[in-house]
Input
Amino acid sequence: MATQTSHLPRILDRHADGLLADWIREQRQVSSRTGAIKEAELREECGEFLRLLRQAVGDGSAVDVNGPEFDPLRELLANVSRTRGTQGFSPTETATFVFSFKRPLFQRLREELGRDTAAFADETWATTELLDRLGLFTTEVYQKTREQVIARQQEEMLELSTPVVKLWDGILALPMIGTLDSNRTQVVMETLLEKIVETGSQVAIIDITGVPTVDTLVAQHLMKTVAAARLMGADCIISGIRPAIAQTIVHLAIDLGNVITKANLADAFKTALERLGTESTALARR
Output
């Protein structure tokens, strides 16, 4: 979309220093979070914005914020949005970086074009449209940044919620707490198998004492985990099956005939030690 902004380059050139000073002052007044940014950093960001904006608008014959001439400016705004997003700024506070530039700029437009009502109106409309588009761009980048932060935190929490600990030489335990879903159960399987390879363990205890319910899909994932561990030479023991889960498993006709189950983690650990002892004895007899 092309927009005529014939007066903007001249105004940016003529009032660069005043615009910078008024803009920084404006941001300090309208946002309570600008104190989180050092004065020198804010001045550098604003100064670079003005330089790149002047470069992007060229001679003012046509302005397209999606054009290649605006690439450096959009990159600057993207960096500002990402930084604000990771610092905990809100979307409004982030967009204020651009929108707060309106007042100083419109003041200069009034000084330069106030006597020509038509030119002043046209220039104000074109400049408003330009800054609105740039402000919305910062909001879009901010939103994507926050979504990435949330996704990374969810992934980290998922990993933390599925710890695999070594109880004994050759024995691993995976205590699970909270709701199991397909995604989490998939992480359980991957984490456990990696740990089996890393430690060379022969027995893995999956303790679901802290799991309130399971559904068919989750139960199938657990069975696949047991089967995969077995293929890698490790036996799995499932402990802590609650009455409600036991009823669900029976209702769903899930076959646990080949899986060792124990009432609690202590019993499972005892069984695991016995299995290792039996194997050690057998090896000693050979």
In short: The mean pLDDT is 85. The first strand starts at residue 165 and ends at 168. The radius of gyration is 32 Å.
